[in-house]
Records
---
Amino acid sequence: MSGSLRIKAPSAAAAFVLVDLLDGYGATATPEAGGEWVIHVGLLGNRQNAVPASLGFVRQWLEMCGLPSTSVTLDSETYLLRGDAQDVGTVRAPAAKAHLRHGDTFGGCE
């Protein structure tokens, strides 16, 4: 199954930090209303490895920016990815949603 992973960022600066971390995954950032940004990661090809690797980079980004969490959309469902989760790097693609929580709030980072 192809698709995309969408990650909310609170600012352009934070969005482009994450795009840099996701170098090699074809990540792009687009602005949304209210000054928020969305990072899109295409999941074409090896989805089984791309999802957990991308979530690992998102967690690293949360720590770098001091964000407690972010909104992540996978397969049309939105989850709250917390920066303090210790098992993000071990998520396998079919079970990815088990490690994410529903929600759409996130912290701020400039």
---
Amino acid sequence: MMKEYVLPLDQRAEIRPGCITWRIMDAEGRIGQMTIWPDTDRGAISWGGNSAWGDWDWNERVLILDEDAQDGRRIIVYEDGSEKLVNQPWW
């Protein structure tokens, strides 16, 4: 049974009509929230607490986070919440 999840405060402050938001769960059972702002091609993901923000790629259906991993690789988050580290440029 999934516990109730509330939209993170930083995403809630920016939400407006037309935004797309959905719940995600990783392989370990962590529940998160992903939100896309179609008019700006931006998105955010949160596993609790503040969100990580980035650019949404409509063709690949991934969120490319603004902040890189510690080793300098890009963090790509798929629409199901799974993550992948890739060298830049990733496309």
---
Amino acid sequence: MSKKRKEIRNQILSVLRAARVVNPDFIKGNRSIPYEDNKLPAISVYTRAEDQTEEIAQAPRLLRKRIDLLVEVAVTGSDDEKVADNLDDLCEKVEQYLSSDDSLNKKCDDIILQRVDFDYIGEGVTKPYHTALLVFMVKYTDYAPRDRFLQKDITPFEGVDADWTVGHDSLEDDDLVPQEEDDQAHDTVNLPQV
């Protein structure tokens, strides 16, 4: 999992919990459907897709990325009009709090609400509920994955030392002409460490 993606998701959770948009215990960092009847209204924050949009720099490689981050708001009630109003009010609060800091405390470059999708969940649950899915486009920059080279049990590849003798493998030992020490080839390559 991308560390930056996790940081962005956790920052959104922190903002929404601190703002008490709904009971902070009912704000989750994953998609937990169906929601429990006695734990509504609720909010789930999760990502659906991530794209690399461009390469900004090389050595080390810096990438610009974009994720679709979803904030799903779920409410229940018997009066459809009140449920719709409650859902709209909660969506407005979510948008307001997430738009107040478009870098999410420097966790991303930008966050923009792209659209809101509404749904009604009535089958397979004991109590029907309504959802609004706020789809945010989050842009951020991150270095290419390299953690696997930095693990303590893996030694970073720093260079190579190679020796060889110039000659032909097809010749017999008695056909080989004795070579001087100067005829030995030796190369050492040291790689820069980032």
